[in-house]
Records
---
Amino acid sequence: MRVALDAMGGDHAPVEQVKGALIAAQEFGVEVLLVGPPDLLEAELAKHPRNSRVSIVPSLETIQMGEEEIVKAVRSHPEASVNVAMGLVKDGRADAAVSAGNSGAVAASAFFMLGRVPGVERPALGTLIPFNSGKLFVLDLGANADCRPSHMAQFGVMGSAFMEEVGGVVNPRVGLLNMGEEDGKGNDLTAESFDKLRETPGINFVGNVEGVEIHKNVCDVLVTDGFTGNVALKVGEGIADYILQEVRATIKSSILFLAAAVLLKPALKRSLKSLNYEEYGGANLLGINGVVLIAHGRSDAVAFKNALRVADLASGSHLMEKMRATFAEAKASSAAGR
Amino acid sequence: MRVALDAMGGDHAPVEQVKGALIAAQEFGVEVLLVGPPDLLEAELAKHPRNSRVSIVPSLETIQMGEEEIVKAVRSHPEASVNVAMGLVKDGRADAAVSAGNSGAVAASAFFMLGRVPGVERPALGTLIPFNSGKLFVLDLGANADCRPSHMAQFGVMGSAFMEEVGGVVNPRVGLLNMGEEDGKGNDLTAESFDKLRETPGINFVGNVEGVEIHKNVCDVLVTDGFTGNVALKVGEGIADYILQEVRATIKSSILFLAAAVLLKPALKRSLKSLNYEEYGGANLLGINGVVLIAHGRSDAVAFKNALRVADLASGSHLMEKMRATFAEAKASSAAGR
């Protein structure tokens, strides 16, 4: 597949984007369109061996702004790299777009340039967490701070489509992140979302899931509002960080462990990485009429390579057809009075 | 101080309660009133050396019920151990009450028997997390699934009083758990709560705190609604559990680490324990007109000992005077048109 990569978004642009694109092109043959100022990108590419699958699409504007003006800034810079990347998807010149820019800016650009899949009320940000017991797709991670039960039900549908078409899971189990496992638990939003999810045709809703269960393969898709999803995973990240600090300190506290510690270090680093949900392939912006991935601002070459792989897999799958068909069907059956 | 301990609440009643009471009485001289069926408690006490500080207060009813009927069940069993324990506090025969019963039942009992501190809209459940960098008091952990901004501001006031009087922190820093650090971030509730907290006199509000920062000593009190607090800490617990599993698996995967692993195990266990927020002393039900602690249902003797210590410390402090004075003042100044 062909993926447009915003070469100017994120902390290490365009150095890590260029490296990541070259690794991805070599490793799994994806074509990458690097979007950014041609001179800068040419110079960066010249540092590495050539790869004919990596090419440049010029963009001459960059967005510089405070948080408040994101939406305005995205609209007023049509030639910004993120907008050009989305435009390539819109025009059929690319199959997917990846950006490590400010997530609000990327979402706004995707929304303006590509629009929503007809029937989708709110696009949502979801990511795959690769626990050892099984992969879990969690959404929304923050695209929607305030949600309604109908949005939550649609998150279940979109997450289910992703896990079926990209994750390769048959009849994915959809859970609702909640305070307790019993039906009817939670706040007003989750209590109503529970009923909505139960009534939603075409998904395999398995009920409430508590946070202590998330790594135990109790569901394939975990639905939550964007505020809770964002806060809970960040608390999890903070606690993971703390635990690993503690384990390291414990190891270092004894001479007996010191030799082992040197060898353990890479393994600990891997464990932490597998928990940092933004490190492996970024987050998918589902509900947009095209495959869009938002990578972490801190992404390095490996993170971009992983994001390009997810973009490649998702655009090579039947994800978008499934999404369009499912929401068209839902609309038709609701019009028929269901 | 004298603490009433519901000997019949929790998974291991009354075996662990009796053990915990005896350890606490010996270690820090607290007087414990064990509340439950006298025959059963006498038999349990007889298994251990006598301690004159541990005595029995009879209660003859127990509450057995499904989740739905909690409030009704608590009201219709005035002689249940949890109600008798609260009654001892009400009558001034005990300085605090501890129960490991169903948290909804304990909260309902506390509410009916003791009422609220005048001026408090909603009691909240808070706990102290002992990170190495500093202690953090987090509330609400689930007493209120749906909150209003005024509740959140009061949580800040109550948490601040706790950290000042029991935690020994001067002018505690109050943070708001949110999606981002910038002012105005978050969902409707946190955006409005931010303003309310900023306007609240007598607290040292330091703004939004992200989950990735919670272990970094950026605040002393962390305010959140009960749904988010409950879900986020449980996700954190799940992720901590997962990380430790991974670390253990990594250690076991190499013969070189195997010897070290045997010695590391207790340290890993300690790390996990320090993260299990319900293990160390239970959660304080603040806003109730008396010192009430809810211990985890799985509490063992050590957990009960810790809960008795927190109850002892809190009831021996000026916490209740501070709470009553602060909310009386707030009422007076709001009546005066502030």
Note: The CA atoms of residues 234 and 276 of chain B lie 9 Å apart.
---
Amino acid sequence: MTTTEQPAHADVGFGRRPRVEDARFLRGKGQYVDDITLPGMLHGAILRSPHAHARIVSIDTSEAEAHPKVKAVITGATLESLKLAWIPSLSHDVIAVLATDKVRYQGQEVAFVVAEDRYSARDALELIDVDYDVLDPVIDAQRALDPGAPVIRDDIEGKADNHIFDWTAGDKDQTDAAFASAEVVVKQDMLYPRVHPAPLETCGSVAWMDPVSGKLTIWCTTQAPHAHRTLYALVAGLPEQKIRVVSPDIGGGFGNKVGIYPGYVLSVVGSIVTGAPVKWVEDRSENLVSTSFARDYHMHGEIAATRDGRILGLRVDVLADHGAFNNTAQPTKYPAGFFHIFTGSYDYPAAYCTVKGVYTNKAPGGVAYACSFRVTEACYLVERIVDCLADELGMDPAELRMKNLLRPERFPYLSPTGWEYDSGEYPRALAKAMEMAGYEQLRKEQAEKRARGELMGIGVSFFTETVGAGPRKHMDILGLGMADGAEVRVHPTGKAVVRLSVQTQGQGHETTFAQIVSEVTGIPSADIEVVHGDTDNTPFGLGTYGSRSTPVSGAAVAVASRRIVDKARLIASAMLEVSPEDLEWDRGKFFVKGDPSTAKTIQEIAFASHGTQELPEGVEGHLDAECVYDPPNLTYPFGAYICVVDVDKGTGQVKVRRFIAVDDCGPRINPMIVEGQVHGGLADGVGMALMEVIAFDEEGNCLGGSFMDYQLPTALECPSWELGETVTPSPHHPLGLKGVGESATVGSPPAVVNAVIDALKPYGVRHVDMPLTPAQVWRAMQGRPFRTDLAITDE
Amino acid sequence: MTTTEQPAHADVGFGRRPRVEDARFLRGKGQYVDDITLPGMLHGAILRSPHAHARIVSIDTSEAEAHPKVKAVITGATLESLKLAWIPSLSHDVIAVLATDKVRYQGQEVAFVVAEDRYSARDALELIDVDYDVLDPVIDAQRALDPGAPVIRDDIEGKADNHIFDWTAGDKDQTDAAFASAEVVVKQDMLYPRVHPAPLETCGSVAWMDPVSGKLTIWCTTQAPHAHRTLYALVAGLPEQKIRVVSPDIGGGFGNKVGIYPGYVLSVVGSIVTGAPVKWVEDRSENLVSTSFARDYHMHGEIAATRDGRILGLRVDVLADHGAFNNTAQPTKYPAGFFHIFTGSYDYPAAYCTVKGVYTNKAPGGVAYACSFRVTEACYLVERIVDCLADELGMDPAELRMKNLLRPERFPYLSPTGWEYDSGEYPRALAKAMEMAGYEQLRKEQAEKRARGELMGIGVSFFTETVGAGPRKHMDILGLGMADGAEVRVHPTGKAVVRLSVQTQGQGHETTFAQIVSEVTGIPSADIEVVHGDTDNTPFGLGTYGSRSTPVSGAAVAVASRRIVDKARLIASAMLEVSPEDLEWDRGKFFVKGDPSTAKTIQEIAFASHGTQELPEGVEGHLDAECVYDPPNLTYPFGAYICVVDVDKGTGQVKVRRFIAVDDCGPRINPMIVEGQVHGGLADGVGMALMEVIAFDEEGNCLGGSFMDYQLPTALECPSWELGETVTPSPHHPLGLKGVGESATVGSPPAVVNAVIDALKPYGVRHVDMPLTPAQVWRAMQGRPFRTDLAITDE
């Protein structure tokens, strides 16, 4: 039982409660994109480039068109005439839906076949004859800017290199001075390799452009249906009021499903061309090879400190590999603000960062996979280099952290990059994690094992996230601001519906958003229906990513619910013939102060509002309220993690034995769901630390094209998680909530890596790049770790 | 070109414009209930009583259940256990979904079969063995209260007769005094026979109770989806937030589709019992025999006047035949307020009315078929008796009307029954109709023809309607008040959606409501999508009937649109950095007063509201607005009609040669649609006057069970309508609109009947009951007309 948990009672408000959506998920009755079948529906398949870099000489589709079951073969030429040649992208890059001049990465879309069934569409792909003039690929980000490197984006006028941008943050002079005065400086290169969110469900869409009504309906695997709709309207000029984007049940997103993929556009084009609904669903290999990857940050960190462990400064230099295009959360034309809280959770007097973006012949990265503005990469860098510093100083890494963590009195804290952390009690969280772990005892055990020659490691990490994208006037997507709408309608019988601008990819919104309404209005959450994921049915908002559902949309729902209560007070005052101030609110009912027997329940008030009750001046009928919430600031959840590993000396195999995670995301709507989110993120972290990487060979072949190659953690690799919490409410969220969706994914990889490197201390290892596969660990023990992003070894 | 018509321009605002919905209707692409097909859907059929009055001794369903394709056979017993035994009725009567004790009219529902296909379901009906003990039926309303008449409603405790209520209105003493002082008194009995709205589409529903989510979706032919939802929740206890009622394209309603029919409930029960979706669709005969009829008013009128034609008083006595139950707009427990403006359009010093309701063994009537609170029947009575008076006085009926019509200075006019007519310029409308008709010339022509022995008639009628049901605190359905919600959302690109609580049965709401938004906001109407007919998608409201869409829901939309403009002004003031008062509104844009070059269009403002524009204090993002409109009063459209007929002396065949209709419904949103509505209503009037009647034989068999028996007018029976308008805005509607859906149906039957009787003047005929079929006219010429409601003649 943790602090925000409440005793089980009549299904009202916050508390541990089964997920509503599991009724269908557990029975296999979810409705995913691939479950949607429309009368007369056709099926599409995409022809993809086998080359990483090649000029397209010609495309001959005649044989495919002659296939008896093929209805259309679409190339770039078809798209041009429909004004749908370019992806409505959230970045400012210009990305062709189908390549026409060159292919720039393996798996890039070249043509689209629409046929009567999926099998015929696939078969016909083989009948398309593309003549490629193969070019040298640029695979190594560190060599992308070499003079003479092939220019990938020769489609951009005047572009003669692979450079995208340079960006800096912090105060260079101040940081140089801090380093000059330091007693100790530690430097370390490190790679956060390409990883893939690998959601359970791949991407897909069903598009239906009704030729009679002109209405375009797109069911697709998107985390941001409203953004998609407006982008189609802005970029392709389709009439916004005639576009409906539906995000049905989604089998995981993790940022992989934020942007618009060529396949979505192609299903739309397919429907326009054939006059029939068209379904397109990726297979696993297509998802892994061609949809947005994450990370691929080549980082160099330097930390300056006093000999007694007071951190003085941080210097970071990053080479960001964007792949061939700038996708989704990876902007082109403005600096990558996405590394903005690179300083993490510590109290640095000075910090400075540079980021350089480059193009390579790889699929576009930039997916917001628990990225929360690149906090994942930054947190990894900081937490690793703090461990390197501890090693250098001979200090316990937990002690070094405790010494330098931001103290509660520093909040609201203005970071060296100008971001204001809202609230935090960092030392309390770390102390709690250490207590839960039995930290001292663990160190004793480690010492004993080391003495016996056994490799046990203890890894500590601390993270601060920055989530809840807004405020609207500071952040935008193609000019659209980050405000979320919410509507609460109480029906005549006192049941309610809440409509959200965000939607779920499995996070349990149908449960938690009902609980928010319930918490405020007192209506049992079982009486509240949550509607989301359908632009026809929900208020505008830019979608679910960056853990923003609870901080922004949750706030919108809370405010709308409060407006319901405010309106209910006025109606109750008319019903009871007293002034509104004379009423007392006892969650779910109003009564005349001092006389609970006069109570009018929210249900009675709802009926009266739809009935014939005389209403006070200026109060309209029905019990509805709306809110468009513009967050005054981001929220800053945080946490302290401790990981305990054993490493097999002979094979390099890492066993995560224990994992203690103390998360502080403010009050918890439904502690069970928070724990589920944390469990998932911790498994992510184990995967990224130990197993996952998308590497490329010299020809630019993607080496992670199946789950045989791209390893994901299973229950076997995960320990029984040990979770704890502290509660530091956000001062600016109406209910103090902060969001937790990405926390564990951000915080856990450095804990695991720190633990493994701690285990390898006897071998003098200070750093090894992820993933720490048995081979990598074994080679690190030999003093010659791999470079994990390329299939190039020194063997 | 009439006064409110506007020059064709950029698709903004009111004006003549093609109907948006015709794109699908004309191509046969409408989606009606019977077009809905769900996976695994089953089909239901209803077993109906062959008797008008019989006790049910037993029902044996075993053979039907054994049919290999039958999935369920449902009787009253099944319903009891599901709490769905009673129809959630809009009246306060208790009507069984399936008869258990007795059947009370021919066609009453007795059992329901659910089978794999429609044919098997129908076949299995014949396998159900019902043992009936046949009772004497009560068919003649005028004998229903005879001592010893069989008691129909012995299900009501203590009920020993067929009496329902007595109701009076007006001042009896004052009226008696007026009559005592009169120089002339004319008395006339008349029948407004049973007629049927006979919509093109019969009733039907598809119900799907999803056993996983618990969500009940009902697609049904209803004019009032929200009312249906709440009634299911109130009566059956189903959770309101889990019920979705969808009214898809509807092929005409005319009041026939307001209430809940047993078939709807049975499809719900069928789905609950079988776990599959269940479709039920009536055939034509079922629709004619068992769904709500209209009228069946046996009326006695008396009018008192001075010798020079000043009307002094009106006395009305009505026997209202309700059939076996009180349905929909036919209340049981409170007086029939539905005859409330029985005095019509004239300035009576005194009026008094009594209405007595009785049960008969006929299908329940009470449908709101252009009933607008029984104005249809009242208008007929008044317009006929005024003609009788003119005949008695030897005055021209138009002249008599002109003399007694309410004069403009009498408005707002408080009627003898206490209703406040909002606005009117009655003499202007009549004068315009007479001018259009060339009234004097017509009378000359008639005189010439009469001289030649030809039968030509000229009929005049004037009507006042009372529509736009509200205000919410004065009118209710089971406690639910008459307020309508509307929501307008302007998307980022400046396109908009408007969500209505009402929906259409063919009236063109998708066109006209977009025009209302356009009129106020300046957004082109082609950029505005209208959403309606789906409780999941639209704000609460009690539906479309009594011509209330424009007066109530149209007002809600207008007010919400004004709120959009008000909000846009504030946002524009921030964009232009001036105070809101310094802005000028030029429909569609704001500019700084005196400088049109500064204009910000509504589209630019919409984008800014969704973007990063700083907003004024208290203004939330997005450009949305809502309104729940509670009308301060009803609206009172009116009109003057003139009909010219020729009657064949040999056969009694009536030919409507001309029909002049001047309607005043305030400003016209789309004159073309208004004219279409008027055309339809005029055809209704020709049908009712000349052809339509649902009669019964002595055993209670319904004699109007097919379109072979129940004659509807076709283009052959209709002249080329001559339409005119006057414009008297409603002072309390935000745009002055009044509603026109029922006007012509109310006003036209007396014009036709008056014309025929005028033609028959040479035969000394003062009154003949509708319908004026050739046989009836011929017999009237012989001095012995039929009683049209019974299949009993003197032959």
Note: The domain at 22-30+470-629 of chain A is CATH 3.30.365.10 (Aldehyde Oxidoreductase; domain 4).
